[in-house]
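May I ask for a single protein's sequence together with how it folds?
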Amino acid sequence: MSDRESQRTRADVERGRPDHHDPTAGIGGAAPAQSALTLRLVLALFGLVVCTGGGFLLWRTPVPAVFAVALWVLALVALIDIGVVARRKARGEPG
């Protein structure tokens, strides 16, 4: 990370990245697009719970174990996404 990025204020973050261009900004009075980090966090938490629980349920049934392992891999992806979103929210990004 460069020194310029580490010195950004919350107002800078709310304006967006310097090289970002929103093609829909200003069309029909539309507000600038924003990231829905909280929604992404809720959906990742839901996916983590459902995939972990579903994996354990499938593990105990007589179906091939590959289905349970696939759900656990998806749960791992959701866990990584939770970490990414939490890091972005800790940096102060809106959403």
Q: What stands out?
A: DSSP finds four helices and no strands in the chain. Residues 36-95 form one domain. Helices lie at 3-6, 10-15, 37-59, 65-90.
